[in-house]
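[09:14] KT: can someone run the structure on this one? pasting the chain below
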Amino acid sequence: MDWKRFFDSLGMNGTRWQWRIMRWQRQMKQMARGERVPGAEFSVSKLLLILNLILFSAMVLRGASAGLGMAPLLHPNSELLVVSGGQWWPLVVQHGEWWRCISYAFTHGGLIHLGFNMMVLYQVGPHLEQEIGPSGFISLYVITALAATGLGYLWHPMIIVVGASGALFGMIGFSISYFHRIGGHHGHAQRDFMLRWALFAFIFGFMVGADNAAHLGGAVSGALFGLVYPISMRSRRALSPVTNALAGLSALAIIVSLAFLVLSWF
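[09:31] RB: done, structure tokens below
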């Protein structure tokens, strides 16, 4: 397709858009090969952050329309959390609502809960995504979110669980083992940086009574993933069919889970 002519016909700068599309195509090919893409405009971490903000806003608006006023902004009740996608294992096991195993990671118990988790995602996510690529990042996010809620089922199956912190601890656990494998000054510096984040997040979790089962499940699964994730570009290219397939399944899992969440509202 002649992109320049297409955008010229719309009254836009066709040359500028033609170069932009060529850059996007080049970046997509690099992502598919498992290569790092510095300065890439597409960012999985930013997209996940936006999804969290959208779903939190939807929860607050839903609570307000139900006559709860602005109380859900800081303290949404249990019923609202479940309706908004929170994980409650009786609904999963008895009613087959398996989509909650992922949707819960996009539901938050108030503005403070959301703010802390999104601060971690904003600070840690882009840096880690640049290191392992979008395909590795989205796979890590979904796998650790599943592991976090899986441990929660063994630990406290009757408690409503919400929040992205399981997946965020997965990112931290992954970074500790992954950068330790890289070694050298850079690798150890990044490992120590993530260890400080882990300590800070665990202390904060104890202070606010957070779900430390999810934190532990996310951190351990992330660390295990970091032990096997390919480091060299040669290994990533060789394994790109596997990592791309895993990333595709992870993205599909998020899309389907959130679609079922929205359908449950009607």
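[09:33] KT: thanks! The CA atoms of residues 52 and 106 lie 5 Å apart.
[09:34] RB: yep, looked fine to me
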